[in-house]
Amino acid sequence: MLNYIKSELYRAAHSREIRGTFISLLAIILAMNLTLFLMKDVEHFRYGSASFSYSMLVSVPMMYCYVAADVAAMLYESDRRSGTMGNSIAYGISRMQLFAGKCIVSFAVSLLLLAVLLPVYIGSAALLLHDAGPTTIQDMLLEIPAMSLIATGSLILAVVALDLFENRFFSVLTWLAVMLFLPKLLLFAGILLPFGGDALMDAAMWMPANFIPAGTRVNMSECVAVWDTGAGMARCLVSGAAGILVFGLAGVLLLRKRDI
Question: Cα 110 to chain center, whole Å?
Answer without folding.
Answer: 9
